[in-house]
């Protein structure tokens, strides 16, 4: 909720969480009556396979937080152990919802830059810790194609954070701001009331301002 400045009125929105992974947003918000669809390539796996695939990533994340503690702002989480505890709770919540959610179509296997949804299926698409953070592996063309695709399936898209894995602003942010206009999308940066990677206090917002007939 804090990554994306979500508020109570978003409860009426049709939401997409893209690159949702083993996170608990869809499970928690569905329990509150929200309409959330989560997409990730790992949703082709079953529960046991997902649990196994998460293990290495969690240890890697812990290593970075311990070794480079000063790169993070600890106001929200407190310390590394609390991040790990919340991460585990999120994983457990997600997995407890996973098989049933898959049957209902809440968790769908899929991958950017091509999504299997009709235009404007969603009011708002969310994408956290996938775009920009892996700028060393996903190039600018991938970012542009992914954001244009999210802009096709959702009226608005929010992306957070805008840092790469080393804690520097991704070099693709300014290029994306410059070039999404060519695709008929308005892109801007808006502040968020959350900071974990130091300096990561804004999200990218992409809006499709074309008429519905375009
Ligand atoms: C670091 S995790 C972030 C998970 C969650 N959004 C969060 O913030 O906790 C990145 C996720 O992106 C997924 N992913 C990788 N490539 C993708 C793609 N091309 N399209 C959508 N998701 C992708 C991975 O499977 C992984 O679950």
Write a brief caption for the model.
It comes from Micromonospora tarensis. The protein has 214 residues and is α/β, with parallel strands linked by helices. 35% of the residues lie in helices and 19% in strands.
Descriptive account of the structure:
With 214 residues, the protein is α/β, with parallel strands linked by helices. Helix content is 35%, strand content 19%. It is built from five helices and seven strands. It has helices spanning 25-31, 47-67, 80-104, 140-153, 172-179; strands at residues 14-18, 35-39, 107-108, 122-128, 154-160, 185-191, 202-208. Strands 3-2-1-4-5-7-6 form a seven-stranded mixed β-sheet, sandwiched between helices. Helix 1 packs across helix 3 (80-104) and helix 2 (47-67) runs antiparallel to helix 3. The model has no long low-confidence stretch (mean pLDDT 95). Residues 18-21, 23, 40-42, 111-112, 128-130 line the site of S-adenosylmethionine. This is SAM-dependent methyltransferase. InterPro entries: SAM-dependent_MTases_sf.
Helix content: 25-40%
Strand tally is 7
Q: Number of helix segments?
A: 5
Low-confidence segments: none
**Main beta sheet, described?**
7 strands, mixed
- Taken as a percent bin, the fraction of beta residues is 15-25%
Q: How large, in whole angstroms, is the Cα Rg?
A: 17 Å
Helix-strand string: EHEHHEEHEHEE
What's the rounded overall pLDDT mean? 95
Oligomer: single chain
The termini sit apart by 31 Å
Shape, principal axes of CA atoms: globular
Which structural class should the secondary elements be placed in? alpha/beta
Give the cofactors and ligands: S-adenosylmethionine
Widest beta sheet: strand line-up? 3-2-1-4-5-7-6
């Amino acid at each position: 909720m804090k990554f994306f400045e979500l508020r109570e009125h978003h409860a009426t929105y049709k939401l997409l969480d893209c690159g949702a992974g083993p996170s608990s947003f869809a499970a928690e918000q569905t329990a509150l009556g929200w309409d959330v669809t989560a997409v990730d390539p790992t949703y082709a796996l079953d529960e046991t396979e997902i649990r196994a695939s998460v293990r290495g990533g969690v240890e890697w994340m812990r290593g970075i937080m311990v070794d480079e503690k000063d790169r993070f702002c600890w106001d929200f989480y407190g310390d590394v152990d609390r991040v790990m505890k919340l991460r585990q709770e999120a994983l457990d919540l997600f997995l407890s919802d996973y098989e049933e959610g898959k049957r209902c179509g809440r968790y769908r296997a899929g991958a950017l830059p091509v999504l299997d949804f009709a235009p404007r299926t969603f009011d708002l698409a969310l994408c956290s810790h996938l775009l920009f953070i892996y700028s060393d592996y996903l190039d600018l063309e991938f970012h542009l194609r992914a954001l244009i695709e999210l802009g096709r399936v959702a009226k608005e898209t929010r992306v957070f954070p805008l840092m790469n894995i080393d804690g520097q602003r991704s070099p693709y942010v300014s290029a994306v701001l410059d070039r999404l206009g060519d695709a008929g999308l308005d892109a801007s940066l808006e502040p968020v009331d959350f900071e974990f990677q130091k300096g990561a206090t804004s999200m990218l917002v992409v809006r499709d301002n074309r008429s519905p007939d375009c």
